[in-house]
């Protein structure tokens, strides 16, 4: 079977101008499959051929497609939007083995709901998928599909798709939840580059292949995703395989590339030289660095690092050199010192395109990489394996990396050609070498397009390189933000940008985050069942340093910064820290500065970071008073004069993750950074923190402006994944808020001198605005027992004696807030934090006095085993994800013409009965089996538990779940979200360390219930002999209006008498409260059934309809199976009550004789009516 547009998408026709309650319905067909898929009300159902035929006429074709990638789920507020992603454009790039490889060029998103909001986001996702960097394989036999996510060596060890390179795996989850065979219906897409060429070697035909697989573990664009994350995954990680397939032989060689495994970024607009900023301190980077190299060893065996960064600290490569030095320093101090680290300044060594110096690199590789080897197999026999890989990096892992990997690949190509026996002729080798050179160039361009948006640099033409450089600048600075969001939507979908998702990311591992929304909500509500609380100490300091590095002043040498940050107070008691050390120091120090540089025009436009670096070094030195207990700089954030630092004890580094920074300008209406705020957030164990250092508008009367600064900062501070300021467990504000005192300055000085601070505080602008609800709602501040901190003469205890003589004020403040979770509402032990100290220090190098607040707070520690138990319990309680119950009649009924027992009376009664439990979204039936899908699995579980056996209209029905072993099905869902990379080689003995929970740890094995009898299959008969009323899909909106107010249901009529069915007693009318049904038409229910398409459900009815039976009981059915039943009476033109003679029983194969019609020209006389006069006779001819 040739590959073509085998898929067809059908959309239900709009009836009566698409009533809002009518669900949007889509059918997906495949030309080689009789079954179809129905998408309706967020449910997916597999329809038999009979069911499809019953409703096919109601649908129209909207799309023809080559394949389906799955269903994209996009979270939008409280609802989830779904789109069916179809491949409408692709072309073949070659064959590997018996499979053909295709590149995706065009996709179409079919909305699965009436409304189509967020169209802009969907357009961006389409652009990503249509970029020409996504590939899939196709084979006529799905069981022999070539998995492009696996290299040749791994393919011999496993047939399980490598989830690192399975980019549309989240689009498969909806199909998995509803038990759909996604191996047939869906394709698996890989992002990267595939180049295939055919090389003829004599009579043999070889396939030359280069496959670059881009990992989706930390995917993104050039300036948005850099370095490593907390799980040890790096940006732009690509596994590149160079392979040759010749008959039953295959040889393969694997290389890798990835960003420098440190926390670093390139903030701001990047033009020309790029500034590099380390976003975490050295000690805080150690855990992630160790995870990355450990993971690389586990996956690839031995490892060699090839570092191509510049080494010159002079010129525009200063940032590269700093990054390279930090990389080497981190490696030298790690446990991975056994990994060779080759430094090769590519730009220096290969200046002017001189590739000859790459021979120096080859010499160094030969010393440590030659024993790595490559993979070779002949038939089913593996002759040799690759035992290690080279990890290459530059700043972007693009142009320089492409050149070096090409050089390495061509060098290994010699050995590959020899081992497959094609090295006899020099011409053959030259042919392979030329083909692979061209493929490596094309491969470099494709990989570069994904990350940087353009082809690779170094094409040999300065004009082309210049054009691509300009295009990169525009793309990376202006367009990559929307592209990054599109990539996040594709990979994260419904888990993106919601408060519930943010809370779930704190409490749950990454492979649980794609569980249904009800599961995430329940896990967040029950978090107290799997966490324990511990106490840590936090110190928050603020200091307006008036523009300099005053800690170097020789004045007042007896005072130090430690007197500010670790005050000697009896209220501060010793606590036990994470390393069993007892002291009074805090576990976390958040220190904010204002006016760290002079607020002149030059600094406002481009503030220097020299002072910030000097303060960081001094603070770390001061805090590390004990040499064996140094503090580590977690990160810092500077906005012109505002700078915020967070220091931690090194023991906490392993528990920290999701560190992010942000800043907001509020000066001159948000245009300049002379006023504004810097913010740092992170997660410690199971608790999220956010620290904000701010500098508000100055001036005695500028209260409204200060309030506006607070509101603007609160609104604009955002962090990755849509996190906001208010979404954190703890939020701490510190800074020079500039709120003054509404009193005469002389009165203020007199009250302060007399110690009457309370009289002054009553006029404090901040307290008055807070009480009025204008700023800092729900925030707490310690009792102020210290004199105003502003404004002093330098190196003096006197308030301002200058000509301006500013009034004293408490401008420097610290406030905090703890968010109370819903589960803690009734917890009497809940507290927002215990304040130990709130005061100032007498450092006199500035016109402000520094302030510090020290608190003991509770944080949550997660117990993974208890969390797994709770998760398993939640899965059991919430029922199956498909929310579907199967209904079958207890006994077999033989009905007239083999029609289904589910006529309108029974269907209406059954749906109304089930609607009392939960909202019903989809109902369908085949024969005596009906499937009912609820809006959520909990309702389905309740329906089976409460109404397992029902009697509706005299019919006994039995209910059971469609998926009875759903906990194990959920385990499969989690498995597809879990990293499952098979080791490249087996013999390397590296300590195993899990970075994501395995499914067996998350979902306990559940013993399946006893097996039920298999569902009766739909009879596969020809249309000529197909029975009537055997299958259908119920339009639930015509029965139940869940949104309307409930009312008493109408009396449910009993079924009319049928042949061969025992007499059923009439059901008594029951008065129940249930959702209202549609008004009952005046005609009988059975007559309504035949009035398609306005009927409640559609039926198969290919036979010619005859006139309705008389209301008297029908004649007895014949005893012999081949004999025809009596034909009902027919009115003749002359003889209306003539009886048709019965069939001769001695001639079973002979049809009964029908009397000839009396062909007269005159109709019977119509009885006279008064008025009108009698009608004249009419001629039949």
Automatic annotation (TrEMBL):
One of its GO terms (molecular function) is nucleic acid binding. It catalyses: a 1,2-diacyl-sn-glycero-3-phospho-(1D-myo-inositol-4,5-bisphosphate) + H2O = a 1,2-diacyl-sn-glycero-3-phospho-(1D-myo-inositol 4-phosphate) + phosphate. Residues 125-453 form the SAC domain. InterPro entries: Endo/exonu/phosph_ase_sf (IPR036691), IP5 (IPR046985), IPPc (IPR000300), Nucleotide-bd_a/b_plait_sf (IPR012677), RBD_domain_sf (IPR035979), SAC_dom (IPR002013), SYNJ1/2_RRM (IPR015047). GO terms for cellular component: presynapse. It is an enzyme of class 3 (hydrolase). The keyword Hydrolase applies. Residues 1038-1049 have a biased composition (Low complexity). This is phosphoinositide 5-phosphatase. It comes from Polypedilum vanderplanki. The lineage of its organism: Eukaryota, Metazoa, Ecdysozoa, Arthropoda, Hexapoda.
């Amino acid at each position: 079977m040739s590959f073509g547009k085998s898929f067809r998408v059908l959309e239900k026709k709009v009836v009566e101008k698409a009533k809002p309650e009518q669900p949007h319905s889509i059918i997906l067909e495949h030309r080689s499959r009789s079954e179809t898929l129905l998408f309706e009300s967020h449910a997916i159902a597999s329809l038999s051929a009979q069911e499809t035929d019953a409703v096919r006429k109601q649908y129209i074709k909207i799309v023809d497609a080559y394949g389906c990638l799955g269903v994209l789920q996009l979270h939008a507020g409280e609802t989830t939007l779904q789109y069916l992603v179809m491949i409408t454009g692709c072309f073949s790039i070659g064959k590997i083995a018996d499979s053909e490889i295709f590149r995706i060029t065009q996709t179409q998103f079919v909305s699965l709901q009436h409304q189509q909001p967020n169209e802009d986001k969907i357009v961006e996702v389409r652009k990503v998928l249509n970029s020409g960097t996504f590939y899939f394989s196709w084979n006529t036999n799905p069981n022999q599909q070539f998995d492009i996510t696996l290299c040749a060596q791994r393919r011999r060890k496993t047939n399980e798709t490598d989830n690192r390179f399975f980019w549309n795996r989240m689009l498969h989850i909806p199909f998995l939840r509803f038990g759909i065979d996604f191996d047939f219906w869906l394709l698996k897409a890989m992002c990267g580059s595939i180049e295939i060429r055919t090389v003829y070697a004599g009579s043999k035909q070889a396939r030359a292949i280069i496959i670059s697989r881009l990992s989706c573990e930390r995917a993104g664009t050039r300036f948005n995703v850099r370095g490593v994350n907390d799980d040890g995954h790096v940006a732009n990680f690509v596994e590149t395989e160079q392979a040759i397939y010749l008959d039953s032989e295959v040889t393969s060689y694997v290389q890798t590339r990835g960003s420098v495994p440190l926390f670093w970024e390139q903030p701001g607009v990047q033009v020309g030289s790029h500034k590099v900023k380390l976003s975490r301190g050295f000690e805080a980077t150690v855990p992630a660095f160790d995870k990355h190299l450990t993971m690389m060893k586990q996956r690839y065996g031995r490892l060699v690092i090839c570092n191509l960064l510049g080494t010159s600290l002079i010129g525009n490569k200063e940032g590269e050199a700093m990054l390279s030095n930090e990389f080497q320093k981190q490696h030298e101090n790690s446990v991975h010192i056994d990994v060779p680290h080759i430094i090769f300044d590519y730009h220096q060594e290969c200046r002017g395109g001189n590739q000859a110096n790459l021979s120096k690199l080859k010499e160094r590789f030969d010393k440590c990489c030659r024993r790595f080897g490559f993979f070779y197999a002949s038939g089913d026999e593996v002759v040799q394996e690759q035992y290690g890989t080279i990890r290459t990096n530059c700043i972007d892992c693009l142009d320089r990396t492409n050149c070096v990997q090409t050089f390495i690949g061509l060098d290994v190509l010699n050995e590959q050609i020899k081992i497959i026996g094609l090295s006899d002729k020099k011409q053959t080798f030259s042919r392979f070498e030329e083909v692979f050179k061209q493929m490596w160039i094309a491969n470099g361009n494709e990989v570069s397009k994904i990350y940087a948006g353009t082809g690779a640099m170094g094409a040999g033409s300065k004009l082309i390189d210049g054009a691509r450089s300009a295009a990169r600048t525009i793309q990376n600075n202006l367009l990559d933000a929307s592209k990054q969001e599109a990539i996040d939507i594709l990979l994260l979908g419904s888990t993106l940008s919601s408060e519930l998702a943010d809370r779930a990311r704190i409490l749950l591992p990454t492979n649980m985050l794609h569980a249904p929304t009800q599961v995430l909500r329940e896990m967040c509500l029950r978090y107290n069942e799997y966490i324990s609380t511990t106490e840590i100490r936090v110190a928050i300091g603020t200091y307006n340093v008036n523009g300099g590095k005053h800690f170097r002043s020789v004045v007042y040498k007896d005072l130090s910064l430690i007197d500010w940050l670790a005050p000697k107070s009896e209220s501060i008691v010793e606590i036990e820290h994470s390393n069993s050390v007892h002291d009074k120091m805090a576990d976390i120090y958040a220190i904010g500065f204002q006016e760290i540089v002079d607020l002149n025009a030059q600094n406002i436009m481009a503030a220097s970071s020299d002072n910030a670096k000097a303060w960081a070094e001094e603070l770390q030195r001061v805090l590390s008073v004990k040499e064996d207990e140094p503090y580590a700089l977690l990160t810092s954030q500077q906005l012109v004069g505002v700078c915020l630092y967070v220091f931690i004890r090194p023991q906490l580094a392993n528990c920290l993750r999701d560190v992010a920074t942000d800043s907001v300008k509020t000066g001159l209406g948000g245009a300049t950074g002379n006023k504004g705020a810097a913010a740092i957030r992170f997660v410690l164990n199971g608790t999220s923190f956010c620290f904000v250092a701010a500098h508000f508008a100055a001036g005695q009367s500028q209260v409204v402006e200060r309030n506006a600064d607070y509101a603007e900062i609160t609104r604009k501070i955002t962090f990755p994944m849509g996190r906001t300021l208010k979404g954190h467990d703890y939020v701490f504000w510190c800074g020079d808020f500039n709120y003054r005192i509404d009193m005469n300055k002389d009165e203020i000085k007199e009250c302060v001198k007399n110690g009457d601070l309370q009289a002054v505080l009553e006029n404090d602008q901040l307290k008055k605005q807070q009480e009025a609800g204008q700023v800092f709602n729900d925030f707490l501040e310690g009792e102020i027992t210290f004199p105003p901190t502003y404004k002093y003469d330098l190196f003096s205890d006197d308030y301002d004696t200058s000509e301006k003589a500013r009034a004293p004020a408490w401008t420097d403040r610290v406030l905090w807030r703890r968010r109370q979770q819903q589960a803690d509402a009734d917890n009497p032990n809940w507290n927002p934090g215990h304040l130990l100290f709130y005061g100032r220090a007498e450092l006199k190098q500035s016109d402000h006095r520094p302030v510090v607040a020290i608190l003991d707070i509770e944080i949550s520690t997660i117990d993974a085993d208890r969390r797994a138990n709770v998760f398993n319990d939640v899965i059991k309680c919430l029922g199956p994800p498909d929310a579907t119950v199967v209904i079958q009649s207890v006994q077999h009924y033989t009905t007239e013409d083999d029609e289904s027992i589910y006529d309108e009376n029974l269907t209406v009664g059954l749906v109304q009965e089930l609607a009392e439990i939960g909202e019903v979204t989809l109902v369908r039936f085949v024969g005596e089996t009906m499937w009912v899908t609820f809006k959520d699995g909990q309702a389905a579980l309740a329906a089976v538990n409460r109404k397992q056996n029902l009697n509706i209209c005299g019919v006994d029905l039995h209910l059971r779940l469609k998926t009875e072993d759903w906990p194990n099905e959920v385990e499969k869902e989690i498995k597809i979200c879990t990293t499952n990379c098979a080791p490249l080689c087996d013999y390397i003995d590296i300590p195993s360390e899990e970075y994501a929970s395995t499914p067996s740890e998350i979902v306990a094995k559940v013993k399946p219930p006893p097996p039920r009898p298999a569902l009766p299959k739909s009879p596969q008969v020809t249309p000529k002999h197909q029975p009537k009323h055997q299958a259908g899909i119920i339009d639930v909106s015509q029965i139940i209006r869940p949104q309307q107010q409930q009312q008493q249901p109408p009396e449910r009529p009993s079924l009319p008498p049928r042949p061969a069915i025992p007499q059923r007693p009439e059901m008594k009318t029951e008065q129940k409260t249930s959702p209202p049904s549609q008004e009952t038409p005046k005609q009988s229910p059975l007559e309504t059934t035949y009035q398609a398409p306005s009927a409640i459900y559609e039926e198969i009815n290919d036979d010619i309809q005859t006139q309705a039976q008389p209301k008297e009981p029908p004649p007895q059915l014949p005893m012999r199976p081949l004999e025809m039943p009596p034909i009902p009476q027919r009115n003749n033109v002359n003889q209306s009550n003539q009886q048709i003679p019965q069939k001769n029983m001695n001639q079973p194969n002979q049809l009964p004789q029908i009397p000839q019609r009396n062909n007269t020209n005159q109709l019977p006389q119509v009885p006279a009516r008064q008025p009108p006069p009698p009608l004249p006779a009419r001629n039949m001819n």
